[in-house]
């Protein structure tokens, strides 16, 4: 998914991007969030190697200096864009609705991908880039730890006992794979059907946990 990092900009992210067309000028007060959204779009469209101050400024309709003012370094921009992606995805995925009801778990995942595929593509781009750039691993781990924690908390609300790490990883891996497949292949109805099957398996776990053990005596 991500192109090679060879020929990328310098560490300060100051090189230009060539043919990217500027978007509308950013209104006063839109500020940091607009720049973060622009950074997400730049990476989603061209990979991490395309992430420069100038590319973000052009995408946001802002000045190069404003991007530098807000973030100071390219690494800070990447870290804050990742944190922004986590907040956005957790708020829109229903990964942790907080109800403890199986029927509410991960409602709207396919709609989330349709509404903002860029923020999902951004995360997968960085995930793959971390294989080539180990210095990104702490940020990627923080991203996935937030997802694992949210998944585990919601599973623990549903199940009679606390959800362990293996089950949490299994459930989230299924959801993560479905999001990736929808990004590539489309077919949101397949995502919805697969998640309903996943809920069916969770209902079996809930029912099994509430069964009264038979008296062997």
Low-pLDDT stretches? 1-24
Number of helices, where a helix is a run of at least 4 consecutive DSSP H or I residues: 9
Q: Assign a percent range to the helix content.
A: 55-70%
> Which oligomeric state applies?
single chain
Main β sheet profile: none
Alpha carbon gyration radius = 20 Å
What global shape is seen?
elongated
Mean pLDDT: 82
SSE pattern:
HHHHHHHHH
SS-derived structural category: mainly alpha
The rounded distance between the terminal residues' Cα atoms is: 59 Å
- What is the beta-strand fraction? under 5%
How many strands appear in the DSSP assignment? 0
Write a compact overview of the structure shown.
With 217 residues, the protein is mostly helical.
Summarize the topology.
Blueprint: H1 31-46, H2 53-60, H3 64-71, H4 74-93, H5 109-115, H6 117-132, H7 137-158, H8 165-185, H9 188-210
How does this model look, in words?
The protein has 217 residues and is mainly α. The protein is 65% helix and 0% strand. Helix 2 (53-60) packs across helix 3 and helix 5 (109-115) packs across helix 8. The longest helix has 23 residues, at 188-210. The model is unreliable at 1-24 (pLDDT under 50).
Features:
217 residues; mainly alpha; 9 helices; elongated; disordered N terminus
């Amino acid at each position: 998914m991500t192109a090679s990092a060879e020929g990328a900009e310098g560490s300060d992210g100051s090189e230009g991007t060539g043919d990217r067309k500027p978007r509308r000028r950013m209104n006063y007060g839109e500020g940091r969030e607009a720049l973060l959204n622009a950074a997400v779009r730049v990476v989603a469209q061209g990979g991490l190697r395309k992430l420069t101050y100038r590319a973000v400024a052009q995408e946001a309709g802002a000045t190069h200096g404003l991007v530098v003012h807000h973030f100071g370094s390219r690494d800070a921009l990447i870290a804050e864009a990742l944190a922004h992606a986590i907040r956005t995805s957790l708020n829109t995925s229903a990964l942790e609705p907080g109800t403890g009801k199986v029927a509410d778990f991960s409602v709207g995942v396919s709609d989330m991908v349709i509404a903002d595929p860029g923020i999902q593509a951004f995360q997968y781009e960085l995930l793959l880039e971390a294989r080539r750039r180990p210095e990104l691993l702490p940020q990627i781990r923080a991203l996935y730890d937030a997802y694992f924690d949210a998944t585990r908390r919601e599973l623990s609300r549903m199940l009679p006992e606390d959800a362990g790490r293996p089950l949490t990883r299994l459930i989230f891996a299924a959801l993560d794979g479905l999001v990736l497949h929808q990004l590539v292949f489309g077919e949101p109805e397949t995502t919805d059907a697969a998640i309903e099957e996943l809920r069916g398996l969770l209902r079996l776990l809930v029912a099994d946990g509430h069964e009264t053990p038979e008296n062997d005596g």
